[in-house]
Amino acid sequence: MEHLMRAATVVALLVLSLGTACHGALQYGFYNGKCGYKDVEAIIQGVVSARFARDPTIVAALLRLQFHDCFVLGCDASILLDGPSSEKTAFPNLSVRGYDLIDEIKAAVEAACPGVVSCADIIIAAARDAVALAGGMPYRVPMGRRDGTVGLASNVVLPSPFMSVQQALQIYQQKGFNVFDMVLQLGAHTVGVTHCSFVDGRLYDFSGSGKPDPSMNTALLNDLKQICPPQSSTDNIVDLDQNPTSVNRVDNSYYRQLMQNRGVLPIDQALASDPSTRWIVQLLASTNLFPPLFNNALVKLGSNQVLTGTQGQIRTNCRALQTTLHHSCRRREKAKMVSRGAAATVALLALNLAVSCHASLQYGFYKGKCKNQDVETIIRNIVTASWFGDQKIVAGLLRLQFHDCFVRGCDASLLLDGPTSEKTAFPNLTVFGYDLIDQIKAALESACPGVVSCADIIIAATRDAVVLAGGQKYEVQLGRRDGTVSQASLVNLPAPEISVPAAIQLYAQRGFGTRDMVLLLGAHTVGVTHCSIVNSRLYNWNGSGKPDPNMDPFYVMVLQNVACPIGQTFDNFVFLDDPSSVLKVDNSYYNQLLRKRGILPIDQALALDPTTKPIVQQLAGNNGLFLTQFGQALVKMGAFQVLTGTQGQIRQNCRRVN
Ligand code: HEM
Ligand code: HEM
């Protein structure tokens, strides 16, 4: 009888669980048709499956990531944000893993359709795919979350493993979950590991008794004492599910272990003794209810306090906030629409004028805007003619795009003349290509004055040059406007000696991931540098008085004797890529790096740093992949902090503000 009543409670609770899950505007199949013909969920699943094949422990990483994200300010990917006091620096998050997989997925979905898929949805979808791969029951989750903009360690309130069931339940209830949700969610401890530091108390000094936890199974106690010897100097890891055949499997083994007093964390075993949870553990251990109920619990967890619609943002890089003003603009646009037709037209007109809003970049932006002339064709013809005259222009334009976009966004601020303008800053002294931009601008001004921005010219011309040099054709969205500020003091470009982690950080601050960085540095497949920058690697690496041991000795010899001999009185140039390929856009640069033939310190460092080396290896082995993704990376860089709509201006002369 009691059993029946309990079962009825389960059903009631299940209904309650589903009923109270506040999905907001989340939808099943949310991304259908939003990413061209591509299937977003299939892309995510592909990346998760590939990782799972190499590392099945990724299932645990993703489940914990979902929990730690959703419990703090809701499922808004706030845990993914980097920063000195971000959520990931809080104590309970120090052993959270899987960020790199999320980055990998994000790169794949951004390549398919930039700015569409949120990091928050990626976490939820990836955890779902991982569960199915690990033997759990496949399930669907509604999507449409947006990414949050706040991630602070001080917001992290997560239950501790040393809490009593009632204390943990209190935290769960504050977040809108019930006891059933809590026990089911903790079923995630059917995979993954913990550390001896969380278990030692149960092994040697339970509740200050100086003795082991009497509720721990003796065989388990002996096993764990082996893994976690007293006063050990290393914090070893312990499987959370102590059934050796089920460590990486999503099944009800965790609850069966609890029923045999073989739970590992204090909170795990406590579930099997507290009267409010023991019966649920018993039920899950003895039936096959766990798989579908676990799925429901994860869907509910994944719907906790989500941002949807126009809330939050879609980050380009899950580790950094998006810096454009899209969201607030959309709100203002909405405000404008709502009030149109209302009486306060005059006030609104003032508002319209006062607010300069971002429109978005568009494909074919200039169609029909330049009489009957095709703006992109005019640009391409001039670039092509110039390239036939001097193929080095490809390097000039690529570097110009980078140095423009990285400083105050892609607003042609680099083109402005003046005694203290950006082009006078040290890293820009060797930038060239300004005259070609002038030439293009003159042609466009005579076709349709005041229409095409200098910022767009840089982006379109670079694209055309890349294609001429063997790159893959890529479409660029246009509609940028020109900035009005250009100051040498604002130029914060990476130095060639920068370390890989520091460079990653610099890129991340601008919303670019590590892969973007490695791809963009692929621009060094063309062009040159100077002996003044290479000499330290040839003659006095890190003050050693010797060459850099990470430079191929043959290259050292050639450069020492031919390009940059001691005492040379002029600053000779050095090809950044293999001389036979230095005018071509291809993956030869990465192959050179693998042969220790990188030229700039940062180039070679990419092939040495463990974070970037695998990317270098992959790109070195696949020219097609490089060509496709290089184009995508340039598109992404070209959309960085752009001015659109009524912002900025269209300069008549790229060297001067109107
Ligand atoms: C009362 C609630 C919970 C507490 C106190 C708790 C505590 C912990 C602790 C202490 C660890 C070990 C961390 C380490 O040693 O580095 C851990 C690991 C883990 N937790 Fe929880 N947890 C709770 C709920 C959850 C939930 C709801 C989920 C997911 C839905 C989850 C998923 C995991 C996973 C998968 C691991 C293994 C991680 C890995 O292998 O890297 N936990 N948890
Ligand atoms: C960590 C990032 C980067 C650093 C530290 C860096 C540094 C440098 C340096 C020191 C030079 C040689 C300048 C000279 O000797 O005159 C150079 C050349 C060049 N850089 Fe970069 N760069 C970086 C990223 C990029 C990116 C993202 C692009 C374009 C997408 C790019 C495109 C180029 C090109 C094409 C050249 C050759 C220019 C020429 O032939 O005149 N670089 N870079």
From TrEMBL:
What's the EC number here? 1.11.1.7
- In this chain, substrate is annotated as bound at 494
Q: Which reaction does it catalyse?
A: 2 a phenolic donor + H2O2 = 2 a phenolic radical donor + 2 H2O
Paste the cofactor note. Binds 1 heme b (iron(II)-protoporphyrin IX) group per subunit. Binds 2 calcium ions per subunit.
Disulphide-bonded residues: 370-448, 405-410, 454-654, 531-564
Keyword ATP-binding assigned to the entry: answer is: no
Enzyme class, broadest EC rank: oxidoreductase
Q: Please provide one cellular component term from the Gene Ontology annotations of this protein.
A: extracellular region
What InterPro entries does its record include?
Answer: Haem_peroxidase (IPR002016), Haem_peroxidase_sf (IPR010255), Peroxidase_pln (IPR000823), Peroxidases_AS (IPR019794), Peroxidases_heam-ligand_BS (IPR019793), Secretory_peroxidase (IPR033905)
UniProt: Ca(2+) 2 binding residues: 525, 578, 586
Q: Which CDD domains match?
A: secretory_peroxidase
Sorted alphabetically, the Gene Ontology BP terms of this entry are:
hydrogen peroxide catabolic process; response to oxidative stress
Catalytic residues in the record: 403
Annotated ranges, domain Plant heme peroxidase family profile:
25-322, 360-658
Residues engaged in binding heme b? 524
User: Keyword set for this entry?
Assistant: Calcium, Disulfide bond, Glycoprotein, Heme, Hydrogen peroxide, Iron, Metal-binding, Oxidoreductase, Peroxidase, Secreted, Signal
Q: Where is this site: Transition state stabilizer?
A: 399
**A molecular function (GO) term:** lactoperoxidase activity
- Any idea which positions bind Ca(2+) 1? 404, 407, 409, 411, 413, 422
Main localization is secreted
**Record-linked SUPFAM superfamilies:** Heme-dependent peroxidases (SSF48113)
Protein function? Removal of H(2)O(2), oxidation of toxic reductants, biosynthesis and degradation of lignin, suberization, auxin catabolism, response to environmental stresses such as wounding, pathogen attack and oxidative stress. These functions might be dependent on each isozyme/isoform in each plant tissue.
Q: What is this protein called?
A: peroxidase
Q: Please give the organism.
A: Ananas comosus (Pineapple)
